[in-house]
Amino acid sequence: MTERLYYIDSHLVKFSAVVQSCEERNGKWAVKLDRTAFFPGGGGQLPDTGYIGGVRVADMEELDDGEIIHITESPLDPGAGVECAIDWDTRFGYMQNHTGEHIISGLAHSLFGVNNIGFHMGAEGVIVDWDGYLDREQLEEIERRANEAIHRDLPITICFPGPEELGGLEYRSKLDITENVRLVSIEDVDCCACCAPHCLRTGEVGQIKLYESVKNKGGVRVRMLAGMDAYEDMRIKFANNSEISNALSAKPNETAAAVHRLMDSAEELKLQIRELKDSLIRRSVSALEQTEGNICVFEPDFDGDMLRHVVNVGMELCGGICAAFSGGDRAWKYCMGSKNVNISKAGKQINADLSGRGGGKPPMIQGSMTASRQEIEEYFKKALFGAE
User: Fold this and answer.
1) Considering the chain, what percentage of its residues have pLDDT values greater than 70?
2) How far separated are the first and last CA of the chain, in Å rounded?
3) Under 8 Å between Cβ of 226 and 94
4) Using CA atoms, how far apart are residues 43 and 37, in angstroms rounded to an integer?
5) Strand partners for 162
6) Cα gap 222→139, rounded to integer Å
């Protein structure tokens, strides 16, 4: 059985070991060592990476029998003594986040009686699931007390109590286990069964920040970050807030209010624009006259919705096609419709004759055209289209 050095010393970065076996597996190699400080992953914490004898460790695996497998990029010689090194910055970041999770879950349990039922580290941070709902005010209290615990630099201890001793202890555990239990204790904050390496003192966690919280299966799911991950996230957020502050000429702590004012102003402008568009549409359709032929309208600044409004009215007034155009200089967007003409069939002919492209379902089509205004006007004056 592989000796687990990380159980005793979570800060062991370099160590020596003997290669017990090396087997090829899907283009990589599965390596067993007699002793290892590489954590294979578990309890929600990701596996370590690093080097064994200069060979990259890309992944880890723990077998059902407890053996630990190191997945390497190249083979290693069985029986060889090797020097090993863990990617410490990565490991320490995992420990900061995991220990931070123990702190907040311990506080959530002691303060509000909720239990941790899920924990996951990923690209978006640490996800924690609790079996009871906590509101924003309660989460803020947990966050505040968690950072107070960090500032107190409390000791974190590891122990392996026997069955009799374990029976008299209060501790958190997601699994119903009674043998080979490893307890991680944070003074005055938490005691939890866990297999992963942790910080030695709460001060090493640095800081804890709780982010989004959503209701989840009768409880709550919270995203959190700790340590350097929390620092880097806050650094990026501060830089973004500074840009917003400068752009809005608002104090950094007043950007939210400034954004709300800007949004209110934008809504007012939208209403004004809508009113102006409605006025322009009314002006355009008021100029339409009833005819047995086609109607051709040019409104250089109309958008697609405005063109459709005009065509909807024009279709009721003409016996042929109502065609509305927006743009200029041989670059037009169009909308065409008819109650009496097969507009899909006619549209293909119009596009071919006037260098257009587009289509749609009756009674209306839309597209673009590269003919001149004069060419378009003359075409629709002369063109006759058969009924459906």
Assistant:
1) 98
2) 85
3) no
4) 17
5) none
6) 9
220 and 133 Cβ atoms separated by less than 8 Å: yes
Each residue of 11-59: pLDDT tens digit? 999 999 999 999 999 899 999 999 999 999 988 899 999 999 999 999 9
Looking at the structure, tell me whether residues 310 and 376 fall in a common domain.
yes
Q: CA torsion, points 43, 46, 52, 54, in degrees to nearest 10? A: -170
Q: Is residue 243 part of a domain?
A: no
Please check whether residues 343 and 210 belong to one and the same domain: no
Q: Domain containing 221 — which CATH number? A: 3.30.980.10
Give kind and range of the element (H or E) at residue 86. Answer: strand 81-86
pTM: 0.77
Same-domain pairing of 82 and 118 = no
Please answer whether residues 174 and 117 qualify as being in contact, where contact means their C-beta atoms are separated by less than 8 angstroms.
Answer: yes
CB 3 within 8 A of CB 32: no
Give the Å distances, CA to CA, from 57 to 39, 67, 84, 87, 167. Answer: 12, 16, 10, 10, 39
